[in-house]
């Protein structure tokens, strides 16, 4: 199903307003595969985006979060009190939330979305089969060999291997999963040795040489997120784009402080200050910290915003998607003719 793509490059679904329709369509127009991110959006909002992509008559995908609700405990209330005291903003303990799971599944079926990917878990075989029978190609994101096997058993057409270098949230099936810290290249080789399923490689891929190495290691396609963050078509806000390229931030780290789920982003003051007390409770912590992040954006303060990025963020280039794509393809072709 990836053989119809001119180039083996997927644009990562990026929630939080980053994966705009413009970004997804520009990637598909340039011969890759653009993805919309349904996570955190209302069904109405993602439906409008799907309609626009359908009208463009280009291949595209939609990514959906598999719902989970870690149970709340005392640590969440303590975290709330501490953040309220430090930021002087009233915060709310949220109710359970499935991110409109049923409605989003219905939408991808109604519009026969060509590619549907899942993150934070594996849907049941029944759900996967229904979507496949409807004509979609189903991808499940995995972070270790065990999850890869489960995804294939449940009927996924392809698996997206997320290496530890990846920007954004860890896609682990369980919120807390220490078996999932696998570097991408090692992960590709391990899975390829054991399984014949189509592999998408994701995590810290930023240039044509990385793409070449991932394909050589056994991936069928690669998925890039951070590489597209500073494109003109990306919906990343200017404070975020500036933080990625200003040199003010020198490293990334994994953190639970913003959402309660492990995610990789630029290491800022919020992460350093609250890491030791942030509860592993998703999505409650994500909803809890939302007003703090919104205020930080208003104040143009990157030190209290979640600035998701891969370990390779220092190599981000800005420009149009076409410019980024042309560069990636040129580097890839150069590597194919000269790299080992
Ligand atoms: C800003 C940002 C938002 C992300 N949002 C999503 C998402 O909504 N769904 C998803 O499956 N992955 C999401 N991810 C993770 C990426 O899909 C991912 O692991 C990836 O393809 C590798 O990204 P990288 O090139 O940034 O390392 C996000 C990553 C970033 C950087």
Automatic annotation (TrEMBL):
Biological processes per GO annotation: response to toxic substance
Catalysed reactions, semicolon-separated: 3 propionate 3-nitronate + 3 O2 + H2O = 3 3-oxopropanoate + 2 nitrate + nitrite + H2O2 + 3 H(+)
Tree of life domain: Bacteria
GO MF entry, a single one: nitronate monooxygenase activity
Keywords of the record: Detoxification, Flavoprotein, FMN, Monooxygenase, Oxidoreductase
Required cofactor names: FMN
Family in the record: Belongs to the nitronate monooxygenase family. NMO class I subfamily.
Function per UniProt: Nitronate monooxygenase that uses molecular oxygen to catalyze the oxidative denitrification of alkyl nitronates. Acts on propionate 3-nitronate (P3N), the presumed physiological substrate. Probably functions in the detoxification of P3N, a metabolic poison produced by plants and fungi as a defense mechanism.
Descriptive protein name: Probable nitronate monooxygenase
